[in-house]
Write a structure and sequence with these properties.
This protein is mainly alpha-helical. The protein is built from two helices and no strands. 60% of the residues lie in helices and 0% in strands. The longest helix is centred in the first third of the chain and has 26 residues. The radius of gyration is 21 Å and the shape is rod-shaped.
Length: 80
């Protein structure tokens, strides 16, 4: 199998994805465990929205990095 090179851009995008999913999972765990009863509704709504906001910011930052390293290709002309 061919090894896939991970660029900074790809790594940052995976981190952003993990943060968004983690925000959703935290809220789900709080709801299932019953700890959400002690928290206000605005706090519960802020948890996934904060995850989305941080994820979107990281996605936008990731576009500052190039997707792949550009290779210089030199073509030699054989015309005389």
């Amino acid at each position: 199998m061919k090894r896939k090179d991970n660029s900074k851009r790809t790594i940052i995008q995976w981190i952003a994805f993990a943060i968004v999913i983690l925000g959703q999972v935290i809220r789900l765990v709080l709801e299932i465990s019953g700890l959400a009863q002690n928290l206000s509704l605005s706090t519960l709504n802020a948890i996934p929205l904060t995850g989305f906001a941080i994820g979107i910011i990281l996605i936008l930052v990731s576009f500052l990095f190039p997707n792949k390293k550009k290779r210089m290709v030199y073509r030699i002309s054989t015309k005389e």
